[in-house]
Design brief:
Order of helices and strands: HHHHHHHHHHHHHHHHHHHHHEEE
Strand order of the largest sheet: 1-2-3
Number of strands: 3
Helix content: 55-70%
Number of helices: 21
Strand content: under 5%
Distance between the termini: 65 Å
Largest sheet: 3 strands, antiparallel
Length: 530
């Protein structure tokens, strides 16, 4: 067969690859916490896509290699971080990158997608998972396919399927005869019981359930693989600067909306310069302390920035702008809006810094701290793209910012950072919140253990760190076996074994674990966020 001749899908190979991926889901994740198993499965998914492409002589698009690397990197973050949000956002981004890879595997069109195109690609992939497997089941090879030289499958079908049918028919016959023989001879009965114990028939409902969902995943993954290698229809390269067909709002109405929002933001920004940026004296005139003023509304300001960006994207998609003057007016108002939103973000970040200085660092504050600069980067990208009349590339910019946001959590150890910064505050004379330390993950344990054993740590700080470590020591293992393995948890166990936490008398009362801190019960339940 000519290697350049187009080939039709080799359906048995796709079903086999899909079954391996589905069986790997059961093998790696059944009753297991996420750890190295997630990275292994994502690598299997990437390998399955490239192996199917190689077998079918379909060349992946160059951007697909980048997406594959991104998916693998994010899957490793799930393995390397125990902090829940870092692991969770990394898992979601790994799955999103893997799905986008499957949706654009041979075209690489994701680099040209607008924001709506990403949503449409996801819907097409879901539809393919539902439909393409059924089409493959209904497929009958054409005469051309029959002579294509794929004799291995035809030989296996001729010789293997009769054997499978024979085994299926023999099973009830053997079962009845074995039961009769077991009743007739106690030695044979004992041997038969030992054999059946291997299969643990009491777990038969579980086995049936697992078999069913493996078959369902096999069907879905078959459709996804077929869509990735043989998309129907082939997607042409989209033009990111092509406006959406549905544009129903007039430029005057849009100008009024943007102008009103710009005016509102201008007044707010002026107040920010008067008070928050103007110093503590201006704030105390209003009856607030600096920390009280900082505590009010920094999350709301972040939401204002997010909603403003959504307003710009929505109005840009539905507004009719036929004349160059209308386009210039929209650009001017949009850039003004984004510039004011950037000032609002600076205000939110300033409030957050003051809040952290007054009350310390928590996960939620740290997440927001990381999110604000990336949101600002997206706003700056929106301004630049709108100014150069390339707003359609905002979808790619948003995707890169989202990936950058996720990679930041891989680069930073959030819980270790929180522990280190709060310990610095405590050594400087600020109050240390032991409840906050108690709720950190294994990522923070080595940092806390170092502080506990450091002779320079003040005794009051050391006591709170010890209580938090004693609570962390009481936590049950997250998972057992290699599939749930995470290096931070192994390092945490090692660090806990090297510190003496007996003074805190870890015990249980009324079913709730607690330790002793300053002569009082210190509860070990979790749930502290803000």
């Amino acid at each position: 067969m000519d290697p350049d001749e187009p080939r039709t899908p080799y359906f048995p190979g796709f079903w086999l690859a899909a079954f391996i991926l589905a069986w790997a889901v059961d093998l790696l994740f059944w009753k297991q916490a996420a750890g190295v198993n997630f990275a292994v499965w994502v690598c299997l998914g990437v390998a399955g896509l490239f192996a199917a492409a190689w077998w079918e002589r379909r060349r992946p698009a160059l951007p697909s290699y980048l997406l594959a690397a991104i998916a693998v990197i994010f899957s490793l973050a799930v393995f390397l971080r125990s902090e829940p949000f870092s692991a969770g956002i990394s898992a979601l981004l790994a799955v999103a990158a893997l799905g986008l890879l499957a949706a654009t595997f041979t075209s690489g069109n994701w680099v040209f997608y607008r924001i709506g195109d990403f949503c449409l690609a996801g819907l097409k992939l879901i539809a393919a998972g539902i439909v393409r497997g059924g089409k493959a089941l209904a497929h009958r090879p054409s005469p051309v396919d029959a002579g294509a030289g794929r004799t291995a499958w035809r030989s296996l079908r001729r010789s293997g399927l009769p054997v499978l049918r024979g085994l299926f028919l023999a099973l009830p016959v053997v079962a009845v005869l074995a039961a009769l023989l077991a009743s007739a001879d106690p030695v044979f009965n004992r041997i038969l019981q030992d054999v059946l114990r291997i299969f643990d028939l009491e777990r038969l409902p579980e086995y049936i359930f697992r078999f069913i969902y493996v078959m369902v995943f096999t069907y879905i993954f078959t459709g996804v693989l077929l869509f990735a290698i043989f998309p129907e229809p082939d997607e042409p390269r989209p033009d990111p600067n092509q406006p959406w067909k549905v544009r129903f709002l007039g430029s005057t109405e849009t100008g009024v909306i943007l102008g009103a929002v710009v005016l509102l933001f201008a007044v707010f920004v002026a107040l920010q310069f008067r008070y928050l940026f103007g110093g503590q004296a201006n704030i105390t005139e209003t009856g607030y302390t600096y920390s009280e003023y900082a505590r009010r509304g920094f999350f709301e300001l972040v939401w204002v920035a997010v909603l403003s960006l959504g307003l710009y994207i929505g109005l840009g998609a539905i507004t009719r702008r036929e004349a160059p003057a209308q386009e210039r007016a929209f650009t001017l108002l949009s850039v003004a809006l984004m510039a004011l939103v950037l000032v609002i973000l600076v205000s939110a970040l300033n409030r957050l810094l003051l809040y952290e200085d007054a009350y310390g660092f928590t996960r939620l504050r740290t997440y927001t701290h990381i999110f604000i600069p990336w949101l600002a980067a997206l706003l700056i990208a929106a301004c630049i793209l709108q100014a150069v009349r390339r707003p359609g590339h905002l979808g790619l910019a948003a995707l890169l910012v989202l990936f950058g946001f996720g990679l930041t959590f891989l680069a930073l150890n959030v819980d270790a950072l929180i522990a280190r910064l709060n310990l610095q505050r405590a050594r400087a004379g600020q109050e240390l919140d032991a409840y906050l330390l108690r709720d950190l993950s294994a990522d923070a344990v080595p940092t806390l253990a170092d502080a506990y054993t450091d002779p320079s740590t003040p005794q009051a700080v050391r006591a709170r760190v010890g209580a938090a470590l004693a609570c962390l020591q009481l936590e049950p293992p997250r998972g057992e076996g290699w599939r749930s393995y995470r290096p931070p948890e192994a390092r945490a166990r090692q660090a806990l074994q090297q510190v003496d936490l007996r003074p805190y008398l870890a015990t249980r009362g009324d079913g709730t674990p607690y330790v002793v801190l300053d002569g009082a019960e210190f509860p070990c339940y979790t749930g502290y966020m803000d």
